[in-house]
Amino acid sequence: MVILSLTINDIFEKINMEKKGYISEIRLNTHVNVNRCYQCGKCSAGCAVSEEMDYTPSRVMRMLQTNDTENYRKILSSESIWLCVSCQNCLTRCPMEIDIPQLMDFLREKAIQEKTVNKKSKNILSFHRAFLDSVKYTGRLYEIGLVADYKTRTFDIFQDMDVAPKMFAKGKLPIIPEVIKDKKQMDAIFKNTKQ
Amino acid sequence: MNIGFYPGCSLKGTSSEYAQSTIALAKAFDIHFTEIEDWNCCGATAAHSLNGELAAALPARILALAEKQGLNEIVVPCAACYNRLSVAQHEWNEDPALKSRLSEILGMPLNKKCEILNAMQFIEKYIADKITEKVVNPFDHQVVCYYGCLLVRPHGILQFDRLEDPQSMDELMRQIGAKTLDWGFKTECCGAGLSVSRTDTVAKLSGRIVQDAEDRGAEAIIVACPMCQSNLDMRRSHIDSYLGKKTKIPVLYITQAIGLAVGVSKEELGLKKLFVTPAL
Fold first, then answer.
1. Cβ partners under 8 Å of residue B89, min gap 6
2. Which residue of A64, B90, B210, B243 is 20 to 30 Å from B76, comparing CA positions?
3. B201 CB near a chain A CB, below 8 Å?
């Protein structure tokens, strides 16, 4: 019955989404209710990267609570959502157990859809994309290919020029990629998982 | 005894010494792993950052393969893979619709709950009670144990060790004769997946970790995660420029430290592959 009532609630939420704004959309997709946050600030205090962020995690929560589309746009084009390393300290220490890391995952996906990815954070996205492309084509991560792909996406050709030779000398960089046998299944995974 | 093994991509490349030392340590106790055949990448940070469903589907294939190959438990030394496999498994066990959708995409069942063991859980379950009698070279050094994020968080799902002050690695290190020090960075983040795209941030976060370890008088940092290890070790030149001084503390995997104590050779443990050479 609980499952059934949740489903009905979800349907109502979906119908009312436009009227209620993005707070409902976030809740439907992540089960995070931003209104539960009472601004204690523990997330920002424990966050590994809050000092680098344009909006700290607790500030992101406060801005989302306004249900104001202009604030939402600011969050979706912020550096913060890309700098989050999913260390999970915020969730761990949140007295309301708000799953901010999951919220950040949602906001990243949304920023890509809305084409609002922060300019300074594009290289972080490039890295993730190069990573997933490697997995898509070989089933495993091919590190030399990843870095080469990342460089062509970002034109950051000097990245890791200093450590790469030493890694190579120490046998940490296999030249030949490992390719899995069941490529078909891999293709099916990438084709059928929605973003 | 048929114990499965999922190395993951890092352990086949930049962190091959972690796989090497885990396998060598197991061998010293007559344990041989069965590697999951045709395994794929777990998706790591990239998948859950960009596509939540893909982040569940990639681990699903790995665990479905383990199931098909008759493996009831798998050892996953990489903390990132351990985390992703455990979290994804939890997600589909909580959400029957997701589970059936994943099975459909894979064309494979996801029935059994394959047990996923991280490095410490494997050692505790199969080796810990035999370590003391096997120690030939006591690890007589002061160390700090660094757990990072992915072994302990999210605690609600992983349920591994204490959240803010974990002890499992410390206890194992004490068992081989080390003195484990209290310090402030046990579960702080090293910068993880930003290593390539934000090397400056990683140098800062990892720099603070290395600094505290040295300030406390530790002779080595002991880890169980290839991302932590490579950020603290391979990124040492960046860390040193951030700190404005030359740091010397080596970063060893728990499997290398225990391996040394029970008499496994340095070659087998891949000690030469570390950037900061341990003078131990």
1. B59, B63, B113, B114, B116
2. B210
3. yes
